[in-house]
Amino acid sequence: MATDKKLDNEPATEIDTTLVRQLADILNDTSLTEIEVERGELRIRVAREIVAAPAVQYAAAPQAAFAPAPAAAAPAAPASMPSDPATIVARSGEEVKSPMVGTAYLQASPEAPPFVKVGDKVKKGQTLLIVEAMKTMNPIQSPRDGVVAEVLVGDAQPVEYGEALVVLEA
């Protein structure tokens, strides 16, 4: 009986810690919240919690509830988005860019107030907006303390990887 117990524990000691560290590094380098690898009977799942905003709250909001927002926000988006490259170069402050392709939402639900507005003071780690990717709501957090100088996207607007979303000033 003791021999069986020892055999059951053996696979647990064979976990490749280098692989676990590599998976954790991938999570740190990307905006993923979990990653899972399976090799034969061994399955390793590495996940992290997003501390600043409860992602579950956003995931529970129905997709259809956001549908009317694009029509209402469409006129406001072009006014806040510079189309002239000279304007982009002249922008002062730090751009907070999208870490993924998805849909930007400025508020948790259509009835909720926006996370931030131009002129708001924000703290490092504070949620500025959320980007939905593959039905997962990903909070985009402020990289530092500052003041919101510009919001460059409209509510329910599609965004690309690396696209500037918000501009922060000191």
TrEMBL record:
Q: Does the keyword Ligase apply?
A: yes
**Which InterPro entries does the record match to this protein?**
AcCoA_biotinCC (IPR001249), Biotin_BS (IPR001882), Biotin_Carboxyl_Carrier/Decarb (IPR050709), Biotin_lipoyl (IPR000089), Single_hybrid_motif (IPR011053)
Domain Lipoyl-binding, chain residue ranges per copy: 93-169
Q: Which GO terms describe its molecular function?
A: acetyl-CoA carboxylase activity
Q: Does the keyword Heme apply?
A: no
Instruction: Give the protein's biological function.
Output: This protein is a component of the acetyl coenzyme A carboxylase complex; first, biotin carboxylase catalyzes the carboxylation of the carrier protein and then the transcarboxylase transfers the carboxyl group to form malonyl-CoA.
| Name used for this protein in its record | Biotin carboxyl carrier protein of acetyl-CoA carboxylase
